[in-house]
Give the backbone structure.
Amino acid sequence: MKKPIDHEKLHKYLSEHHLGSAAGLEHFASAKRMWADTQHAAVFHSLWLQVKEDQQELERILKKLGREPHGLALLAEPWAKLLGKINLLNPLRQRRQTLAQTQLDVLTGLLNAKHSMWRTLLLMVGEEPTLDEALLSDLKLRAESQIRQLSEFSDSSWAERFR
């Protein structure tokens, strides 16, 4: 007989991702501000909105499991948000520098982490009745779309940062 899913571990895992999403949302907000007065503003505004909606979905999943974000994650959240807001990767928000590319690389990494979380949760669907397979599949596809959008932006605009 298989051991059931340890809800404390699942709660901790989702809380850790919630903490990451708080910092990630601020990183996307920073990118949105950095590109606001350019032809790329709509891309970053859209990505920021999508990431925000995904964070809200994660909060709903936690609530459906009868949980709130873990206490330690809640304590660290203001610091995570502050680090995202400061944008240590590109504090001067220079679009034409390699730091802007590094920031894009990190944003892509954050989206990949979220994608991995949705995939991991999908693996648990048969054993955790509160997880909604259709929702998780949609969230996984949304993460793939976000990764693609950011990659397409990076690919099409690389010369702005390296020439």
